[in-house]
Amino acid sequence: MSGINQGSGSDVLDVHERARFEQLVMPHLDAAFNLARWLLRSREDSEDVAQEAMLRAYRFFRGFHGGDARAWLLQIVRNTCYTWLEKNRPVELMTEFDEELHPQPSVSPETLAIAGDNRERLGRALETLPPRFREVLVLRELEGCSYKEIAAITAIPIGTVMSALARARQRLQRALTQPPVQEASREL
Amino acid sequence: MSCDYTRTALHGYLDGELDASRSAEFERHLEGCRDCAKALEVEESLRCVLQRSSLCERAPASLGKRIRVDLDATTAAPVVQRIPAWRWVAVAASILIVASISWYAWPRVGITRNPDAPPFTAAELIDAHIRSLQPGHLTDVASTDQHTVKPWFNGKLDFAPPVKDFSDDGFPLVGGRLDVLGGQNVAVLVYARRKHFINVFVLPTRMPDTPIHPPGLRQGYQWVHWRHQGMEYCAVSDVSVADLHELAQLTYQ
User: Fold this and answer.
1) What is the count of structural domains for chain B?
2) Rounded distance, CA B138 to CA B101, Å?
């Protein structure tokens, strides 16, 4: 290797690294934005946070030595989102994650299908979930991440990804089939 | 709905994350357990709703633009400011030395150039190389097949550049493009070397063949120059000089 690009640990990257970043990381901008969008529940905020996260990713890019670029980026996006939430909406992060699975009042697939047909309502139901439930659902169902990727992105052990998803799905079903009146009494 | 499987296997099954034997075991269980069968149906319905929902939001184009502006601002240029003062002294000294040598070496009559030198300046060459590394500029025709790249140049230039793939020697052909160098249209062949790119600029010449000239170095990029069978070649990259030489020799064969 030529060793020309090694630099002295500065955060300024050269044109090669810029080109490599464009090729490997920029294609995942949509995924980055989508995760931020659902974690922050606001388009404007998520644009700013996604922009900040991409710049952070760029600064850390020398530390990325191949592998799953999307998972690597989404991990940075998630951390940036949580830092932002801690600063701007600390209350949101105080929900307990390790909630027990409740025996569920039976929901029929048809009821779900009808309720979920309304995009607005589905989006609102997803937004009522605590961020830690929301993120596993977004990663699994909207981004198609594997358990391994979800574990890497969210820093939860791979063994608990499945139970986190199980709880998140149950919460979403509940939020979706609750009478809309009750839903409206939440914030907004 | 209190079957143990609902907790332990159903979601893994739904997500295709169980290994073959556990998956088969769960399927056998499903045949006999109505709770699980129903729960699976509900989960599948929820998944279907989510995936059909168009909840996935794409980044607005303006965001991509803003980010690229940020990235460009953090790229390359500030490196210059980091060069310590003693290097500037060294640079100044080299300029002096080069200038004094050129003074003696330069032909006295008119402004005729050194006949062995390429018909463009090092600055033009390096600029063209750096420009090519910017996103989307590397190739006009991206192909590892010399029989795709060579005909692509037909009708675009008034000469036919020789195009060869050297994958077997560790220099796979990446593609080709048109460029302008020293005011002339030139063909550029792009080769990869590990994770680096090498641009080989090709243009016709009437000068006799020359051997592979000793390398030049500028802004961290090196180049070698040679003439062979009526073509002028210049290979530029940040790979080692030895690599450039090896590639030059391959085209020379």
Assistant:
1) 2
2) 36
* Domain spanning A10-93, CATH architecture: Orthogonal Bundle (1.10)
Q: Which residues in chain B have Cβ-Cβ distances shorter than 8 Å to A173?
A: 42, 46
- Between the alpha carbon of residue B37 and those of residues A79, A161, B111, B240, the distances in Å are 38, 22, 88, 63
Boundaries of domain holding B243: 119-252
The answer to whether the Cβ–Cβ distance between B59 and A30 falls below 8 Å is yes
Give chain B positions within 8 Å (CB) of A48: none
| Domain A97-184 -> CATH class | mainly alpha
pLDDT single digits (tens) B106-160? 554 444 556 777 888 888 888 899 999 888 889 888 888 889 899 999 888 889 9
Asked if residue B137 and residue B46 are part of one domain, the reply reads: no
The shortest CB-CB distance from B55 to any of A117, A142, A163 is to: A142
pLDDT digits (tens, 9 = 90+) for B29-73: 999 888 889 889 999 999 988 888 888 889 999 999 999 999 988
- B40, B123: one domain: no
Q: Do the Cβ atoms of A122 and B55 come within 8 Å?
A: yes
CA distance B49 to chain A (A): 5
Are B222 and B234 in contact by the 8 Å Cβ rule? The answer is no
Q: Please tell me the distance from the alpha carbon of residue B166 to that of residue B174, in angstroms, as a whole number.
A: 10
pTM, entire model? 0.56
Taking the Cβ of residue A123 and every Cβ of chain B, the question of whether any pair is shorter than 8 Å is answered with yes
* A22 interface with B at CB cutoff 8 Å: yes
